[in-house]
Specification:
Distance between the termini: 36 Å
Radius of gyration: 17 Å
Number of helices: 0
Low-confidence stretches: 77-81, 93-98
Mean pLDDT: 67
Strand order of the largest sheet: 1-4
Structural class: mainly beta
Largest sheet: 2 strands, antiparallel
Helix content: under 10%
Number of domains: 1
Strand content: 35-45%
Length: about 100
Amino acid sequence: MRLTLDGLVPAPAQVWGSVRLVPLCRSEPVQDVRIAHRDYRDGQILTVAKVDPRSVYTAYVPYGLVMRWSADGSPEAAVDTTVGDRDGGARALRVLNRMVLR
């Protein structure tokens, strides 16, 4: 599966200290989503990329939640949790929490 940015619209950014998060939103939810925990204990949790001669982009990722989905509804890797109907079919969720604008 190839990840593309088609259909994503940047929402207003949130800033916490020197951290800036820009949510990317779709107009319609993805119908079959699986969330899995990813542990980065192998030590490769810091990424540094040179942007220009005077600045660098640095990202620190101690752990992550990886979202996976499949077009045919088949389950992907999940950590002991799957959201579905009583008959075992996958189910989409609507999240009612909203990110705070500052």
